[in-house]
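Class, study these two lines:
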Amino acid sequence: MARIIEGQRRLIKMSVDDIINIVRQYQQVCKNSCCYDHTRELLSQANFYVPED
């Protein structure tokens, strides 16, 4: 589970499972992308969620 760390900058500490989940989400969103610009467009419309502690 992700953990938000408050300080000068707001940081999110994530587990290995969180990272793998984000990569899977990225692959699902971008699997039909044809080029860099299309990938950027798809990602700008996507929402990625990580459960918080």
Remarks:
- Strands lie at 3-5, 11-13.
- The longest strand covers residues 3-5.
- The chain has a mean pLDDT of 88.
